[in-house]
Structure formats: structure tokens, C-alpha cells
Write a structure and sequence with these properties.
183 residues; mainly alpha; rod-shaped
Length: 183
């Protein structure tokens, strides 16, 4: 057994002697190239999917950028439409205010004009009544004083009737003007 252990140890030593030898620069170059080739293969295997992912991410970002640009254009279009609708609403409000306000102003102006005309008519009617009462008193005094002067009474009545008809015509003219201004 001892012999076999000894033989075994000698055999093992033989195998170890070449490992103690130094590596030459050429050996180191070969090792480097082999390692480099293997590392490059591994890196290529690992980087190829990463490169593909980067390319797909870049195209995805480009698509998203395009979509974002489209959305921004749509938002700008919607903003323009909102501004147009707001301006249209303001114009409608102004039109409604004008449509309601102008007739009110015209009615107020006419009512002032009518009230002034009515005051003139009332003043003329008052004057007419005063003249009629004065003439009636004059006629009565003349009847009482002198029943013989019927000619004077007839002349006064005729004068009174002329004044009444003149005042009545004046009142009718004013009423016609008021009615025509209302139309």
C-alpha cells in the first residue's frame, strides 16, 4: 500500500511540474484574446436585447412625442373654439340688451313727449272752459240788463262759438300729433 501511495504521489508531482512554469508573453496574448472573445460574445449576447429595448424605447418615445404634439394641436383648436363661442355669447348678450333696452328708451321718450302734449291739451281745455264760463257770465249779465239787446247777445254767442270751435280745432290738432307720434 505504501508503494501505491508513493507511486501516486510521484504521478501527481509529474502533473504539477508544468504548472509551475512561467507564462510567456505570447501565452498571455492568447489568453487575453480568448478571454476577450468570450467576454465579447457574452457582452454581445447580453447587450443585443438591451440595444433592441433601447431602440424600441426610442421609437416609443418618438410616437408619444408625436401623439403629444397632436394633442397639443387639438387643445389649441379647442381653445380657439372656446374663445369663438365666448365672443359669440358676448355678442348675443349685447344684442339682447340692445333689443330690450332700445324699445324701453323709445317708450320712455314717447311717454315724456306724450305727457308734455297731454299737459298742453289740459291747459288748452282749462283755458277753453275759463273762456266759456266768462262768456256765459257775460251773456247772463247782458240778458239780465237788457233783454232788448238780443243782437248783442247773439253776437256774443256767435263769438263764443267761434272761440270754442277754434280751441276745439287746436285740441284736435294736438291729439292728432300725439297719436301720430305714438305710431
Amino acid at each position: 500500500m505504501l508503494k501505491s501511495i508513493f507511486c501516486l504521489s510521484v504521478c501527481l508531482c509529474m502533473f504539477t511540474l508544468p504548472s509551475l512554469a512561467q507564462l510567456t508573453p505570447q501565452d498571455l496574448k492568447e489568453i487575453r484574446t480568448v478571454v476577450k472573445e468570450e467576454v465579447e460574445k457574452i457582452i454581445d449576447k447580453e447587450l443585443t436585447p438591451i440595444k433592441a429595448d433601447i431602440v424600441s424605447l426610442k421609437t416609443g418615445f418618438a410616437r408619444l412625442d408625436g401623439r403629444l404634439t397632436g394633442v397639443e394641436k387639438q387643445i389649441a383648436g379647442v381653445e380657439k373654439q372656446i374663445v369663438m363661442v365666448a365672443n359669440f355669447v358676448f355678442a348675443l348678450i349685447a344684442l339682447i340688451v340692445l333689443a330690450v333696452g332700445i324699445p324701453q328708451i323709445i317708450l320712455a321718450w314717447r311717454s315724456r313727449k306724450n305727457s308734455a302734449s297731454e299737459k298742453q291739451i289740459a291747459t288748452l281745455i282749462h283755458k277753453q272752459n275759463e273762456i266759456i264760463s266768462a262768456l256765459t257770465e257775460e251773456v247772463e249779465t247782458l240778458r239780465v240788463k237788457d233783454s232788448a239787446s238780443e243782437k248783442q247777445i247773439a253776437a256774443l254767442i256767435h263769438k263764443q262759438n267761434e272761440m270754442i270751435s277754434a280751441l276745439t280745432e287746436e285740441v284736435e290738432t294736438l291729439r292728432g300729433k300725439v297719436l301720430s307720434s305714438l305710431q
